[in-house]
């Protein structure tokens, strides 16, 4: 658990400097936004380290996870993959190409007309994502255990409401 008394951090020092230099401005938003940004940077690095242990990048993990979450037969169209991941449609083709070369996914024509495509997990792809996701969840638990369950629940509720204002 984090101690109740925490020494001033980088954000607090920046706020103090801005308060000194621009006392007419309210710099309190930096306290939330700056810390949220710093926490996100740290979390990204911690998450990417686990993906890398499985030979994956963040986007690769996201695509494989979206296929695995689809259920049997573990396939989606490239458009559906873009809707179910954090990967842009522009980056999807390159990512699928790389995953296909690695033997983690296959592509096949969709339907009778052959115009559309479907992307599916291979058996190896399913094994990789199942292992990576198990480690990912253990990592997320480790990271979240740095705060109390009550704080985690409050933070989730706050972030859910805040995210809804953007999405």
Summarize the structure.
With 167 residues, the chain is mainly alpha-helical. 65% of the residues lie in helices and 8% in strands.
Q: Name the helicity range.
A: 55-70%
Instruction: Order the strands across the largest sheet as they lie in space.
Output: 1-3-2
Strand residues, percent: 5-15%
Number of helical elements = 7
Shape: elongated
Oligomer description? single chain
What string gives the helices and strands in order?
A: HHHEHHEEHH
What's the total count of β strands? 3
Our measurement of the CA-to-CA distance between the termini, rounded to an integer number of angstroms, reads 32 Å
Question: Which class do the helix and strand fractions yield?
Answer: mainly alpha
The unreliable regions are: none
Mean pLDDT: 93
Q: What does the main sheet amount to? A: 3 strands, antiparallel
**Rg computed from alpha carbons, rounded to a whole number of angstroms:** 21 Å
Write structural notes for this entry:
- The chain is mainly alpha-helical.
- It has seven helices and three strands; from the N terminus they run αααβααββαα.
- Strands 1-3-2 form a three-stranded antiparallel beta sheet.
- α2 (28-53) packs antiparallel against α6 and α3 (58-69) crosses α6.
- The protein is elongated, with a radius of gyration of 21 Å.
- The mean pLDDT is 93.
- Residues 29-164 form the HTH marR-type domain.
- This is Transcriptional regulator.
- InterPro entries: HTH_MarR-typ, MarR/SlyA-like, WH-like_DNA-bd_sf, WH_DNA-bd_sf.
Detail the topology: elements first, then pairings.
Blueprint lengths: L9 H12 L6 H26 L4 H12 L5 E2 L1 H6 L5 H13 L3 E6 L5 E6 L1 H22 L4 H18 L1
Antiparallel strand pairs: 1-3, 2-3
InterPro entries: HTH_MarR-typ, MarR/SlyA-like, WH-like_DNA-bd_sf, WH_DNA-bd_sf
GO molecular function: DNA-binding transcription factor activity
Protein name: Transcriptional regulator
């Amino acid at each position: 658990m984090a101690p109740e008394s925490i020494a001033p951090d980088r954000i607090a020092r920046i706020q103090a400097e801005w308060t000194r230099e621009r006392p007419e401005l309210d710099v309190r938003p930096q306290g939330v936004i700056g810390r949220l940004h710093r926490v996100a940077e740290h979390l990204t690095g911690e998450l990417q380290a686990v993906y890398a242990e499985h030979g994956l990048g963040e986007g690769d993990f996201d695509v494989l996870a979206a296929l695995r979450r689809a259920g049997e037969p573990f396939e989606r169209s490239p458009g559906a993959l873009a809707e179910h991941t954090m990967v842009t449609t522009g980056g999807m083709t390159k990512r699928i190409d790389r995953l296909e070369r690695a033997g983690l996914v296959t592509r096949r024509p969709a339907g009778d007309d052959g115009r559309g495509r479907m992307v599916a997990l291979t058996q190896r792809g399913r094994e990789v994502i199942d292992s990576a996701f198990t480690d990912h969840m253990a990592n997320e638990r480790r990271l979240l255990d740095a705060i109390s369950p009550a704080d985690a629940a409050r933070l989730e509720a706050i972030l859910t409401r805040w995210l809804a204002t953007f999405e």
